[in-house]
Design goal:
Strand 7, helix 6 and strand 8 form a beta-alpha-beta unit. The chain is an alpha/beta fold. 26% of the residues lie in helices and 21% in strands. The protein folds into two domains: 47 residues, no CATH class; 311 residues, Alpha/Beta hydrolase fold, catalytic domain (Rossmann fold, 3-Layer(aba) Sandwich), CATH 3.40.50.1820. The chain is globular and about 50 Å long. It starts with a helix and ends in a 6-residue tail after the last helix. Helix 1 runs antiparallel to helix 2 and helix 1 packs antiparallel against helix 7.
Length: 405
């Protein structure tokens, strides 16, 4: 489909139908525009449509098969879906406060995890030599739609980078029971509040890893791609007391949308200002944390304006206390040929003779890039091997920003 041509027309048509009370027909119009889904029956009328960041109504996900690459989905832009095996190496389900059993070093395992009466899964990478070292940094990695922890780890190469750091890496898995395409439900109000919904689940997983392993509480970070990036921004806003820094790749600012229609609009045009309790992106508990943002300026799934809004929200949070911010810009080209502009924003004390202050935000504009992890491995989905190595730069940024003592 031609996303740029059809989406705005679909939003206008669907909005008119909702206002006239034809909710079921509005949903069918959205589905037709987003991929030609079959008409809904009464049981599924009113469910959200399918896109790269939103769930599909009544969609059936085929059983994955190891080692086979499928054709790109017709309604997921700039994405190649990898089908992966379903075999698991799992520990028994356990509540977050039960014991301190550790995972062997040098392993990447699936952990079954009980939370709020339900079983969930996450993968954890423990680098070689972890047992002999002081408490390690922990990076929470949130996958995008149609991905899973194994795919995301392969595509980003974060485990390889973390082995050198060294750092623990936690990859939560969004079950298809929560979203047919494995998307984090970033646009639902219940998932945008501290202590509730998917945010509470993700934080419980972090605390489970802390209970099992030696984690440095001053160096806990969160990053995500696409829908995972939107969830990372929400976690940074709601839990600045837990996370030291945040990375968002091809995502949206916290509070960009509070329903499905607003989510579609934000993806296409950027978030619209509205009557909210606080500006989107500003923390609700404590000071803002440093942020690094990567976004392709040719992204047709999540408009690059969303990356700019993430940076703007960070700058608003940084300057509300009256501290000025200055920026430095550089351009370059990655070994794979991808061009970029990197802008670093820092606090200053007003005296140009003094050394630059702490970093507020770092913005990587990826020229000509679509909706994909820059510098990623082609064996993983949603990757652009031509781009700058976003994994290396993101981990570098994280380790430069421990939480203040």
């Amino acid at each position: 489909m031609d996303w740029n041509v059809n989406l705005q027309s679909m939003i206008d048509d669907a909005t008119a139908l909702v206002r006239s009370g034809q909710v079921g027909e509005a949903t069918r119009a959205i589905q037709r525009a987003l991929g030609g889904a079959a008409p809904l029956d009464a049981a599924t009328a009113g469910a959200p449509p399918h896109s790269s960041l939103l769930p599909a109504a009544g969609a059936h996900m085929p059983a994955p098969r190891k080692g086979r690459r499928s054709a790109p989905s017709a309604d997921v832009e700039d994405a190649v879906v990898i089908e992966r095996g379903t075999a698991r190496t799992s520990t028994p389900p356990r509540p977050a406060d039960a014991g301190h059993a550790t995972q062997p070093v040098g392993t990447f395992l699936d952990v079954a995890f009980a939370h709020a009466g339900a079983q969930h899964h996450y993968h954890l990478y423990v680098p070689p030599g972890a047992a002999a070292r002081a408490p390690l940094p922990l990076v929470l990695m949130l996958h995008g739609c149609t991905q899973n922890p194994e795919d995301f780890a392969t595509g980003t190469g974060m485990n390889t980078a973390a082995a050198q750091a060294p750092a623990l890496v936690l990859y939560p898995m969004q079950p298809h029971s929560a979203n047919p395409h494995g998307c984090w439900n970033w646009f639902r109000p219940e998932n945008q509040r501290r202590g509730a919904g998917e945010l509470a689940l993700l934080v419980a997983m972090v605390r489970d890893v802390i209970a099992r392993h030696a984690v440095d509480p001053q160096r806990i970070y969160v990053a995500g791609l696409s829908a995972g990036g939107a969830m990372a921004a929400l976690l940074a806003r709601e839990y600045p007391d837990l996370f030291a820094a945040v990375g968002v790749h091809s995502g949206l600012q916290a509070g960009a949308a509070h329903n499905m229609m607003a989510a579609l609009s934000a993806m296409h045009n950027g978030a619209k200002p509205g009557p909210v309790a606080r500006p989107a992106g500003l923390p609700s508990h404590g000071p803002a944390i440093p942020i690094i943002v990567f976004h392709g300026d040719a992204d047709e799934t999540v408009h690059a304006r969303n990356g700019e809004q993430l940076i703007a929200a960070a700058l608003a949070a940084a300057t509300r206390a009256g501290t000025p911010v200055r920026h430095a810009m550089e351009t370059g080209r990655a070994p794979g040929g991808g061009r970029y502009t990197r802008t670093v924003y820092r606090h200053v004390d007003g005296d140009p003779a003094h050394a630059p202050g702490p970093v507020v935000a770092e913005h990587w504009q990826l020229h000509g890039a679509g909706h994909a992890w820059a510098g990623g491995d082609a064996r993983g989905s949603h990757t652009d091997p031509r781009g700058v190595n976003a994994t290396r730069e993101m981990l570098r940024f994280f380790l430069e920003h421990p939480k203040a003592q």
